[in-house]
Amino acid sequence: MQTIIGTDIQEAARLLREDEIVSIPTETVYGLAGNALSETAIVKIYEAKQRPRFNPLILHIPDSSHLERYAVTDPVSNRLAAALMPGPFTLLLPKRSIVSDLVTAGSDKVALRVPAHPVTHSLLSLLDFPLAAPSANPFGYVSPTSALHVLSGLANKIPYILDGGNCEVGLESTIAEVLQDTVVLHRAGAVSASEINRIAGLPVTIAAHKARPDTPGQLKSHYATHTPLYRGDIPALLNQFKGRRIALLLFREMKDLPITNNTTSFILSAKGDMTEAARRLFAVMREIDVSGFDLVIADHFPEEGIGRAINDRLERAKAEYKIP
Ligand code: TXA
Ligand code: MG
Fold it and tell me: Closest by alpha carbon to 78, among 87, 65, 69?
């Protein structure tokens, strides 16, 4: 199958109505979408991504008024939806029976999101079904933030990539679940814990990292480059790996580092803007991965706002967390 990159929303809709899978742009990362009400399409998603069937998919809907069709809402979830959808925010809710176990990997909960990207909003408005879509990368690899990233991982496995330009946010959505007297944060993203706390009026609990987590995408080996990635004391790591070809992934410029000719610095935001750093992170990780480095040494970001989500992704990309 030849993969075409284009901007034809009608063509994407036609393919999706025929149970084909199509990559779609969102403001977070590109998704690999199929009709969420068609088991044929869902199986194609798992196969193209080589994704284990125990890892459930997010349902994408055009508007938060559609939440009730697929899930049972509650007042706090509705408040979060009103404030944060459309946006880089996913709600985990009790599912209705219309949602197949194949989408939720057997769970009685379903994850729902309203993407803010205008192209995908138009596409969803044309369709009479929601789109199940994981990130459009082979399982475990760095998520795609451009149409070309999608092509590099899924060429000849999908018929169409709907090109919506580079993703504005650049990190996967925040995933939250409202419980009796707390909101559980299952994945950090551009919507921060403090923002959720302010809207929900409930304390926010960060889900613990487990070997088999409640949200299986939180497996530690996720979001990883093929090049081994290390974090820690940067001068000490540079000395430890002296003589190797090192990619130094920095938030902003750092002075007085023991850098040799073998080291190349990649600065994510010269002006120290974390939003810009998040937007560029995955593209730079991919660039490093095709540039023949022996290893990556990655910076620590300030533990505030989207900095937490960046630290989370880099932590999961670390060499010692990779599946042997
Ligand atoms: O920003 C995003 O969320 C992107 C765009 C394409 O929407 N999607 C994305 O999907 O990152 P994916 O499949 O790569 O990550 C979805 C995460 C996984 O960690 C998965 O385990 C979790 O959501 N998830 C989905 N459905 C769930 C469910 N029913 N219960 C628990 N976790 C769920
Ligand atoms: Mg993913």
Answer: 65
